[in-house]
Each structure stands twice: as C-alpha cells, then as structure tokens.
Amino acid sequence: MSKFEILCVTMNQTDFSKVKSMNIHSDVVFANQADTTQFETYEFENHIAKMITTDTKGVGINRNLAIMYSSADICLFADDDITYYDDMEEKVLSEFDRHPDADIFIFHYDTTDDSRKQRSYPKTRKCRLLEKMPWGGCRIAVRRKALLQSNIWFTTLFGGGCIFPCGEDSLWIADAKRSGMKIYISKETIGILSFETSTWFNPLLKEDYYFGQGAGIEATFPKTALIWILYTVYRLRDNHTLSNKDKLLWMKYGRDGYKKLLSFDEYVKTINKD
Fold this sequence. Notes:
Elements: E1 4-11, H1 18-21, E2 27-33, E3 38-44, E4 47-54, H2 59-69, E5 74-79, E6 82-84, H3 88-98, E7 104-111, E8 125-126, E9 140-143, H4 144-150, H5 168-179, E10 183-193, H6 207-220, H7 225-235, H8 244-260, H9 264-273
Parallel strand pairs: 1-2, 1-5, 2-4, 7-10
Antiparallel strand pairs: 3-4, 5-9, 6-10, 7-9, 8-10
C-alpha cells in the first residue's frame, strides 16, 4: 500500500500525458470518462498511474470509481485542470502527520483567474460546526480508512454530467460532517487551478443557477431548507440578474425538481404545460 495517491476525474484521455501536464510526482488514479472500457497502468519515477476508462457519465460516479481503485493511506481528490506545486505531497502528508485526529483536510489553490480566487486561511484549524463550506472536491484530501469506514460516497445526481450540474462536493462534505468525520482546513497552498476550460460557471446567475441551488439545498438540508434558501438570497442580494422574488421562486422550483428528479430543462417543460 502506498502512502499517498491522487484520485483524478478526467475525460477522453488516450494516454498518461496528464501526469506531466499536472506536474504529478506521486501515485495517481485517473477515472477517465470516454467511449470505451479498459484499465491501464503506467510506471514513472517509481510511482504507478492507473487509468480506469469507462463510458459512465457524471463526476460523482467517476470520483467513486477512483475511490474504489485507490489503495493509499491518504487520498487527494483532483480535477484535471490543476497544476501541482513540487512540494504538494509533502505539504499534504505533513498536515495529516501534525493532526493525527484529522480525517479530512481542505487545501488551498492559487487560480489563473483573479476574479475567481478561492478563499484561503491564515492558519490551519478545525472546521467549525456551522461554517460555510465553499470548497470544491479538488481541495479535499482524506484518510482512506476513515472514508471507507464512514461509507461516504459522492452523489450521482449532482455534478457535471448529472441531472443537477453542480453541488456534489458540498453534499459530500455535509455527509462527512454528519458521519462524525473530523475536518480540518489547511493554510497550505498546493497548486494552481485553471478556469480556462470551465463551462458551468456563469457569473450572471440566471434561473438554472437558482434552480440548482434549490435542489442542492433540499438534498443537503431538507429540514431547514427554507432558512438556507433565505440565506442564499441574502448572500446573493447584490446580483441583480433576477429579482429576489424570482430567486426564491426558482429555488422553490429546484426543491420540487429534486423531489421529482427533474432537471432544469425537464422542469421548465412542466411549467410551460401549465
């Protein structure tokens, strides 16, 4: 068993060139969404890269595949638009060594887009009970043993390629917190995250965004959904693409869409029929 492994979701890869482009110097599992089904390995620098290629759609399914093929003590979730710093593995393992009670660490990335900087933290600390969780999956490192014991998996309803296009990371973290896993937030920066190929982000935050927010809130906090919806409207009060009334309406539709497992486009069709 290796000590450390990257678990990376990717698409349409035909070789292991991502090892070089992402500056990987550790064991890695690529869960590759394509049109074929195969398993390959590649040896480099005394490390092993595995690539599981399937035609399954959805980031959650492929993150779960990577987990199932993992074998390390510490696993770092990854997207394929990251370039790691040379000392990344050392930083990750050092944080876990210094905090033996930690099951999960949230790390920081620099970004190629100044308008989309991620929140950084001046010192390493425990995650607070009611803390906001603006953390994408690629920021998460986890003790594999604790993960398997908690039986926490990524949803297959939320995320790229799914019914609801984002929110799988927040759901995963919420499930981890509910399971009792101990989460720490690290002061360390471990790489650069590129947004140049991102297709889901829309700064205008139109109807589909609020629909997805409503669906995610219903899935994550069904008993307190209204409170979180009102908080979301307040947090996004300066975004005037929609009125606050319409934001509330589309998040209500999103809650209903989640209960009926209807995507945004499918739900709009039902509204138009009415």
